[in-house]
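job 3f2a | input accepted
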Amino acid sequence: MTITLHEPRVRTVLDRLFDSATADETFEAPWDERRSAGAQERADALAGVYMPISARGGDLLYGLVRSSRPETVVEFGTSFGISTLYLAAAVADNGRGHVYGTEMSAEKVAKARANLDEAGLGGVVTVLPGDARRTLADLKGPIGLVLLDGWKELCLPVLRDLEPRLAPGALVVADDIDQASMADYLAYVRDPSNGYVSVAFPVEDGMEISCRA
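job 3f2a | predicted structure (213 res):
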C-alpha cells in the first residue's frame, strides 16, 4: 500500500518547510496573548513567520484522519501548510474526503497553496482566505475532524461555530494546549456536560484530542 506521506515529493516539501521553521527565529511566543492587536493585524505582522506543528504531531494527525476516514476535514490556521500536508496526505490515502484550511494572511494563503501543489496534494485541499468565522460559515457538514491551530483565543469560538455541523463521533484536535490562552478552551472540552470526551496527548506543546460524543 502506498503511503503518500512518505512519497519523495511530499517529504521534500515537508523537510524544506521544517528546516525553514527551525531557522526562523523571529517568532516570539505568545503573540496570541497580545490582545491589543487584532487577529488580522497579527496575521499580517507575522506573514513571514513559521508557527508549525511538530513532526510527531503531524504523524498523529495523519493517523487520526486515516483511521476515522472523515469526508470533511477543517483546519483553523493553515499558515504555510505544514499541518495541511499531513491532513491532505491522509485524505488522499483514504481515497475520500476533502480538507478545508483557513488562513488570514494572504501571503501565507498563496504559499500554502503552492506548497500543496508542489507536493501533489492541492486537489484535495481548499484554503479559504480571511477570517475563519466568516469563511467557514457556509461550509456544510457533517464535519468529521477539526484541527484548531489558529489564534488561541479564537479556538473556542471557532469550535462553537462548527458544533452544529460536527458529525457524531467527530474528532477535534487542538494544538499548543500548554499556552495560558487555551485555558477556556480546555475547560470547555473537558467538561462532560458540553458533550466531549477529551484527553491531552504529549507532543511538544501538547495536543488535546476531543471526541464529540
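job 3f2a | DSSP finds eight helices and seven strands in the chain.
job 3f2a | closed
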